[in-house]
Amino acid sequence: xxxxxxxxxxxxxxxxxxxxxxxxxxxxxxxxxxxxxxxxxxxxxxxxxxxxxxxxxxxxxxxxxxxxxxxxxxxxxxxxxxxxxxxxxxxxxxxxxxxxxxxxxxxxxxxxxxxxxxxxxxxxxxxxxxxxxxxxxxxxxxxxxxxxxxxxxxxxxxxxxxxxxxxxxxxxxxxxxxxxxxxxxxxxxxxxxxxxxxxxxxxxxxxxxx
Length: 210
What we know:
33% helix; seven-stranded mixed sheet
């Protein structure tokens, strides 16, 4: 079978029918860009926390990359981070929590997807003053079959253009410090690390102005 090429894919607006597919992509890229399927005991938990609320609450900034095998990636964002976090709490996580047990604070007792279940019950909602110049934020995840074809850059530039057209002054994003390929990707798009004591130690937040 021939390998997919750029013309085999198209970027389009996402809709609610894409929910199972974007959850699958989230799971298969959920371990610092690698497949998290073997690690998670709940295949939907990552999607509940990290991508479902964007598809439902910010559909105008939700896009998927469709390829020969269906949805192979997504790029999604939120225009106004504090407003989005308020709606995420009220209209999304509050409805998810009753279906998921809270594993508590003792990490020594966690297993499987407990780490993300805890995030669902106690989300950090980080938006300190250091990030206020970059009020929007975004996510992009592509399956291996869609990488290296230029769609990541095109998709993220499309999201940034949509956010800028809606009035955003800049955006931030969180990336795993171990995901060196993602860090290099964002640097090429003009993002730089935000260095601030207001941000959690051990994490990495990158940002750029529009």
